[in-house]
Amino acid sequence: MPLFHYIWRNLRRWALVGILFAAVLVVFGKIAADRYPAMSEQARLDERAFWDEVDTLTLEERSGLYNYSLRTGIAPRLLPPWEYDRDMCSAMVTKMINFVTGVKFVHTSAWEFRTHRINAGTVSNGRKLTTVWDQTAQFDDDGNISPDVHARLVADVLAYPFDPQKVYVLGPLWTETKYWTEIKAAGADINSHLVFISNGMVTHLVHRDDVSDPLHFEPPADVFADGTMKPVWLAEVHERSYARKGRGPLVVDPLRLPIVEGELPFTQNVVPYSVLRRIIAFPSKPWFAPESWWPTFAQADSGVEKTVLYGMRNRYDFYPRIPGRKSHAQAAR
Question: How many CA atoms does the CB half-sphere of 92 hold within 13 Å?
Fold first, then answer.
C-alpha cells in the first residue's frame, strides 16, 4: 500500500474516532451537567451517613467485622466506585483505619501521611502514629537502593513481630510511581504508597495492571511479590498522644483491638470490576488533546463517571451494610 494512502486512511480513522468521542462527550456532558450538582450533593450525604453509622460501632463490633474479612477474604469497599481509577491508596488506608479502629486520620498524599496537619488547631497524623521501623536513610536522592538492600528491607518487614491486636501502616516506594517530582518537592517522606496491616493481612489499593481489581486483601508477602514495592517505613496506629499536665514527653496509650471470637458479617453488593473498569475508563488526560485541555477532561471524567455510577446505586452498595444498623443512605435504596 502506498505510504500516502496508508497515512490518509489512518488519519480519517482517527478523525472519525475523535468526532464520535466528542459527540459522546457532548451528550454525556449535558446529562451530567443537568444531574451532577444534586447527585453529587446526595452522594456526599450518603457517605456522611455511612461514616456516622460507623462511628456508633464499638471496638468489639469493629473487630467482628474485620474477623469476617479475615475468614472470607473479602475486604470492605470504603471508596465510592468512581474513585477506583485514581491513585487513592492513602484514602483507602485512612478509611480502613477509621473502619477497624475508630481512630480518624486526615486524608493526604501517601508521602505526607506521617506528618500532615491541616492547621494549628488540629492534631497531626503523626500524633496518632509511632514509627517502629524506618529505613529512609538507605535510599539515595532519587529513591534508589541496590537489589541486595531491597531484598533485605523486604525480609525485615516480613520478619517483623506484628502484634495481631494492633494496626500498622506500611509506607513503600512503588518503582512505577508517577509522583516522584511531587514527593521530592514536598520534602516529607519518600514513600509513594500506603498499606494497611492487621492480624496477618494487608489491605491496599494499587493498579498492578489495566484489568485487575486494584483493591487487594492479601498476605504481606504478596505486596512484594512482583518486586516493585520498596519498603521505607512502618508505623503503629494508636489514639492521639497527649502531654501529661503540659510537661514532659508526649504520652502514648497503645491501641489494642479486643480479641473477638465471633464475626459481624457485613454485606456489600459491589459493581463487578469487569463492569466498573469499562465505566471508569473515561480519559482525564487523553493523549489526543493538548495538555491545556486536561483540566476540562478531568472535570468531565468526574462528572460523567459519578453520574453514571450513582445512577446504578439501587442495584449496588457503595458502602458495606452493617447488621443491626440502617443508615439514611441504605434506607433510601
Answer: 26
* Total count of domains within the chain: 1
Whether 28 maps to a domain, the answer reads: no
Closest CA to 236 of 221, 222, 252: 252
The rounded distance, in Å, linking the Cα atoms of 139 and 96 is: 29
Cα 250 from chain centroid?
Answer: 30
Residue 165 in any domain: the answer is yes
Q: What is the spatial distance between Cα 206 and Cα 194, in angstroms, rounded to a whole number?
A: 9
Tracing cell 498524599 back to the chain, one arrives at 109
Q: Which domain holds residue 123?
A: 87-251
List pLDDT tens digits, range 260-310: 999 999 999 999 999 998 888 766 666 667 777 777 777 777 777 888 888
**C-alpha cell of 64?**
467482628
Measured between alpha carbons, how far is 159 from 153 in angstroms, rounded to an integer?
Answer: 10
pTM: 0.85
